[in-house]
Each structure stands twice: as C-alpha cells, then as structure tokens.
Amino acid sequence: MFRSSWQFAFGPESTLTPGQVRPFTLLPDFLDEPLLHTMDTEGDQHILANVCTHRGNLLVRKPGPCRNLVCPYHGRRFALDGLCQTQPGLGEVTGFPGQEDHLKRPVPAQFEAFHFVRLGEGPSFDSWFRPIQEKVSFLPLHTLSHDATCSHTYKVKANWALYGELPEGLHIPFVHPALREALDLTAYPLDIQGQTVLQTGLARENEPAFDLPHGHPDAGNRIYAWYFWLFPNLMLNFYPWGISLNLVQPTGPERTRVQFLTYRFTGQTGGPDSHALHDTELEDESVVETVQSGVRSSFYQPGRMVPGWEEGVVHFHHLLTQHLKLNTSNTSP
Ligand code: FES
Ligand SMILES: [Fe+2]
Fold first, then answer.
1. Same structural domain for residues 106 and 175?
2. How far is the CA of 283 from the centre of ligand 2 (A)?
3. Residue 103 beta carbon below 6 angstroms from any ligand 1 atom
4. pLDDT, tens digit, 9 for 90 and up, residues 7-17
5. Are the C-beta atoms of 67 and 48 separated by less than 8 Å?
C-alpha cells in the first residue's frame, strides 16, 4: 500500500544547485528505500534509485558536488540524470549500456517546491492532490520556507493507522484546550473526495483567518485552517501564516514516527509559536497511545461512529479495507 501511494520526498529546504547530489531514504525503518536527489548541470532535478544496476551497491553515501555517479564497487558510471555511461570491462560489449542499465526511478511529482514520489503503480498525482489545489492556489505558496524551530520528529507508541484516525473534530473540545478556544466548533465542515478528507476549521471572532479572494468556494466564511488528510499517511494543514505537514511513518506494528514539518509564507511571523504546535501534537499522540492500549483489550469491540463528525475516519477505514482486499487477492494462488 505504501509503495503504490504518493509519499512526501522533500521540501524547499532540500533544494540543490547544479552538479549536486543528495542521497536519502524513503520511509526509514519500514520501506527503507534508498533514493538519490540530483540536479544536473542544466538545472533539472531528478529523483533516482540510489542503487547500481550492476550488482546492487548503493551509489552515493554522502551529499555534495558530483560530476558523474561512479559506483564504488566496480566503477559503473552514470550521468546525474541516471543514464548509464560506461563500466570497466563492458565498454566493447554490444548493446551496452541498454535500457536496463540506466538507473531506475520512482514516479515523481511536484507541488511548488514540495516533491513527492510513488514507487509502484497507483493513482495519478493530479487526482490525489486536486482537492488541495482547488482551495489553496490563491496563496503565495512559492514563498514558503522551512521553519526548523517549529519542526520536530516524534516517536509514538502506537500503530500508524490509529494516528490516521485523527482527522475528525469530535475530539478537539476534549483533547485540545487551546484549539478549542480558537475554533468556532458550532460548525466543522467535512469534505471527502477520492483519497482526501478535508476538515475546515472556522475561526472565532478575534482569531486570524484567511483573506479569501472573490469567488473562492469558501468566500464569506472566516477560515482558521484547512486540515487535509491524504491517504494513506500525509496530513497537510494550511493556515494564514503557512503550512504544516505531518508525515505518519510506520516503524513497527505498534510504533510510528511522526515528522512534523512547518513552513511559513515570507513575511508571516504570526501564527502559533513552536510551543503551541508542539503541545497540540503531544495531545494527539497521548490519546493515540492510550487508544493503542485500549484496542488491545480482550473486551474492545469497535463502537458506533458519530454522524457528521466521523465520516473521515470511516472513509479511512474503507480505503484501508480496499487496499487490504486488493493485496489479499493479488497474493492468493
Ligand atoms: S555494483 Fe556497481 S559497478 Fe558493480
Ligand atoms: Fe487532534
């Protein structure tokens, strides 16, 4: 399921200059997929498998400037766009290099300076991301820059799918005291499209809200935040001051890594400070960890969902079930 879905690769903080390369691992401790980000001398960026097509050695271990990619095992050489050029001992061989000798690559996609990859067959990026583009295209997205002080990595003692059940507003008054004061919870619009669930947080009187352009679908409302959840493991939240991403990464049956990344629009110093974001995250994690203990109980049976509030969670369960059925039918004899 994770191979056939879109995964966040890196954001604007990882931009290279021509002739630079940077190895990275997609979903460490789970898929452990070794990838390589390069920028060739023309300034074109590439995301490649960081795996030599000869006998599988990892090509690049450290980021830095690089003219060609030369495998440290037997010297097979590749250009920064992944094309195989030569290898000692094979130079005279007919048909070398052929298609199978070039570096493999995941399917890439880009939203402004945010890069995504898909390792296997799966939905198109446009279909996955369209609900977001429709809402946020008026924002100065090209000015987003990484806010390292408001970005953290968390370890959660729970299955990743329990974290994936968070896109509902029902828990806010009970779990998030500060958010409860900022949001007008008399309404909490929920919009489900394809593999995306959108929750819209409405701002209370004195809270900051988006300055929506004329003709925007939400014009006339005071929007505090759009909380997008994209199947299977990305949360992408838009605020008037910037965005935050939650990358929900399984690391074991009851272990999850949550990478919380914050980006601000140029000139936007408002919005919550690092403590406020950190507190909200810890409040969510605390409840997810206690749910992990609860669902393990001999007495737990899934309970009835609340109409108007928990359709996003039900949708998540449906999508998971679809994938599990698909995988079961693919592997059956
Ligand atoms: S594994 Fe790379 S050249 Fe042999
Ligand atoms: Fe929450």
1. no
2. 7
3. no
4. 999 999 998 99
5. no
**Final residue of a structural domain among 83, 111, 139:** 111
| Cβ–ligand 1 contact at 54 (below 6 Å) | yes
Residue-wise pLDDT tens digits, 86-121: 999 998 899 999 999 999 999 999 999 999 999 999
88/131 same-domain check: no
**pLDDT (0 to 100) of residue 333:** 45
Cβ of residue 77 lying under 6 Å from some atom of ligand 1: no
With 0-12 CB in 10 A as exposed, 13-18 as middle and 19+ as buried, what is 256? buried
pTM comes to 0.94
Examine the pLDDT at 332 and tell me if it is beyond 50. Answer: no
C-alpha R_g of the chain: 22
CA of 4 to the centre of ligand 2 (A): 27
Kindly report the protein residue whose alpha carbon is nearest to atom 3 of ligand 1: 74
253-273 pLDDT, tens digit each: 999 999 999 999 998 766 666
CATH of the domain at 222: 3.90.380.10
Pick the residue whose CA is nearest to atom 1 on ligand 1.
55
- Within a domain: residue 13? yes
- Rounded Cα distance between 68 and 66, Å, is 6
Question: Which secondary-structure segment (H or E) carries 225?
Answer: strand 223-230
Instruction: Tell me if 76 CB under 6 Å of ligand 1.
Output: yes
Question: Is the CB–ligand 1 distance for residue 72 below 6 Å?
Answer: no
Q: 76 is written with which tokens?
A: 């097979």
Residue 56 is assigned to a structural domain of this protein:
yes
Domain boundary among 76, 111, 146: 111
30 CA distance to ligand 1 middle (Å): 25
Cβ atoms of 168 and 310 closer than 8 Å:
yes
For residues 93 and 138, state if they share a domain: no
Which residue range(s) make up the domain with 15?
Answer: 7-111
Whether 69 and 30 share a structural domain = yes
Is residue 187 domain-resident? yes
Q: Give the pLDDT confidence score for residue 134 in this predicted structure.
A: 87
Pocket lining: 52 vs ligand 1, CB cutoff 6 Å: yes
Domain at 80, CATH number = 2.102.10.10
**Predicted local distance difference test score (pLDDT) of residue 274:** 64
Can you tell me the mean pLDDT for 156-174? 96
